[in-house]
Amino acid sequence: AGLYVESKTDNPETVMTDGKIKRMELHFLHDVSKKQLMDAWREGFDKNCPANLMDCNQAGALLAKLDPLMTDMKVGDQMTFNLLPK
């Protein structure tokens, strides 16, 4: 996985709150089922949701929106997410 941001920073809060364009690219090295993928997303959010920066329940609702978009991934597949400011 790679996270690309407009301005280099070592501060995760800055990345979360700066309102700039971000891109996350995932390159799959193993086959992953849709269920495994969604379980990993949920586990990651559960373990890492910054309650001081966002409503963690809202993060769960956003993951629910991702569920119908996910599919099984095979070795070599890629997934890209772009976050554009409002």
Give an overview in words.
The chain is of the alpha+beta class and 86 residues long. 37% of the residues lie in helices and 19% in strands. It has three helices and three strands, in the order βαβααβ. It has helices at 12-17, 34-48, 56-66, and strands at 2-5, 22-27, 78-83. Strands 1-2-3 form a three-stranded antiparallel beta sheet, with no helix packed on it. Helix 2 packs antiparallel against helix 3. The radius of gyration is 14 Å and the shape is globular. It starts with a strand and ends with a strand. The mean pLDDT is 89.
Characteristics:
alpha+beta, 3 helices, globular
SS field, number of helical segments: 3
Helix content: 25-40%
End-to-end separation: 25 Å
Instruction: Encode the helix/strand succession as letters.
Output: EHEHHE
Largest sheet: 3 strands, antiparallel
Classification by helices and strands: alpha+beta
Total strands: the figure is 3
Form type: globular
What portion of the residues fall into strands of 2 or more residues? 15-25%
Structural Rg: 14 Å
Q: Poorly predicted ranges (pLDDT <50, ≥5 residues)?
A: none
The average pLDDT value, as a whole number, equals 89
Major beta sheet, strand line-up:
1-2-3
Overview in brief:
This protein has helices at 12-17, 34-48, 56-66, and strands at residues 2-5, 22-27, 78-83. It has 86 residues and is an alpha+beta fold.
Task: Map the helices and strands.
Layout: E1 2-5, H1 12-17, E2 22-27, H2 34-48, H3 56-66, E3 78-83
Antiparallel strand pairs: 1-2, 2-3
